[in-house]
Amino acid sequence: MKKQGFGSGKWNGFGGKAKRTESMEQAAIRELAEETGIRAEKIRKVCELDFAFPHVPKVRRWDQVVHVFLVEEWKGEPKESREMRPEWFPFQEIPYDRMWQDDRHWLPLVLKGKKVKGRFVFAEDGNSIKGMEIGEVQGF
């Protein structure tokens, strides 16, 4: 559960922005550790998503490309932080109704072992999807 900032009040993955000297993979490992205390031992990129919010001024920086990694091996147990409250869900009980609307389109594919690339354009309300393109890819 995202507790503050962009997307607060929604179930969401862990993450943030890469530092200038980091790869996307290094940033994902660092952000996971900062937000949960978990140390990722083995991760794999499974998805790349391009989000556009055409009604939000560019200076607010809502448009973004998100790189999604699956953590295959880790050490530690997730702990709540100022930013996130982690919770495990069985696949059939994932609360899509309390997540970003795009998640219901790409996450089931990732959970079936697919690699996915997508683009989502959000409507003026900042939540509804106005347009999307999504497809499977061979790799990243």
Architecture overview:
- There is one protein chain.
- This protein is of the alpha+beta class and 140 residues long.
- The chain is built from 2 helices and 4 strands.
- Strands 2-1-3-4 form a 4-stranded mixed beta sheet.
- A hairpin with a 6-residue loop joins strand 3 and strand 4.
- The longest helix is centred in the N-terminal third of the chain and has 13 residues, at 24-36.
- It is globular and about 40 Å long.
Largest sheet: 4 strands, mixed
In total, how many beta strands?
4
Q: What coarse outline follows from CA principal-axis ratios?
A: globular
Rounded to the nearest angstrom, the radius of gyration is 15 Å
Low-confidence stretches: none
Helix and strand string, N-terminal first? HEEHEE
Assembly status: single chain
- Count every helix, treating DSSP H or I runs of 4 or more residues as helices: 2
Strand order of the main beta sheet, please? Answer: 2-1-3-4
Topology:
Elements: H1 24-36, E1 39-52, E2 64-75, H2 103-111, E3 115-122, E4 129-137
Parallel strand pairs: 1-3
Antiparallel strand pairs: 1-2, 3-4
